[in-house]
């Protein structure tokens, strides 16, 4: 187990299960809260991070990331929390609040394009390529801060804002990044 004395780590997690996730709804920037199971998963993640040193935690403005972080802060009350707009979830535009299953049934050719395309936007929404243009500058700033201050940073974000982060650190192709599932029990750990 990693001791709290180690520095220069970036930890990245996605929020735990939200009510809209559970219902299979395009959530995006809709502010859905965690389910009971989501709260339980957040407690498990908090225990996994218990012995890590976390100097700064960045969360998106959405409640589900803040609820996930709340349990982690029980073990890390000294952690500075920063709300970072650039890591907010992808905007699903007109698909927001719609059932994924229903939309897929009614639009079988469009569903995979809007759901997993790298550079095609849902109607009035945002592509992953656009998400990447805001997330990558944030990550570069975080990496620089880690190096300069010799600290550890935790990012609590969303599945689609984590895709560019994983692509950046893991060298994933666009296709590989789009096919990755960012499970809510996984901690992506990057030594800087």
Instruction: Give the total of domains.
Output: 1
Assign the structural class, choosing from mainly alpha, mainly beta, alpha/beta, alpha+beta, or little secondary structure.
alpha/beta
- Trace the largest sheet across and list its strands: 3-2-4-1-5
Low-confidence stretches: none
Order of helices and strands: EHHEHEHHHEHHE
Q: How many runs of DSSP E, i.e. beta strands? A: 5
Distance between the termini: 18 Å
> What's the architecture in CATH terms?
3-Layer(aba) Sandwich
Radius of gyration: 16 Å
Task: Give the CATH H-level superfamily.
Answer: Phosphoglycerate mutase-like
CATH topology: Rossmann fold
Mean pLDDT: 94
Give the CA-based shape: globular
User: What profile does the largest beta sheet have?
Assistant: 5 strands, mixed
Instruction: Please count the helical segments.
Output: 8
Percentage of residues in DSSP E strands: 5-15%
**What is the level 1 CATH name?**
Alpha Beta
Descriptive account of the structure:
- The chain is of the alpha/beta class and 192 residues long.
- The chain has one domain (9-191): Rossmann fold (3-Layer(aba) Sandwich).
- Helices cover 43% and strands 12% of the residues.
- The longest helix is centred in the last third of the chain and has 22 residues, at 128-149.
- It is globular.
- The model has no long low-confidence stretch (mean pLDDT 94).
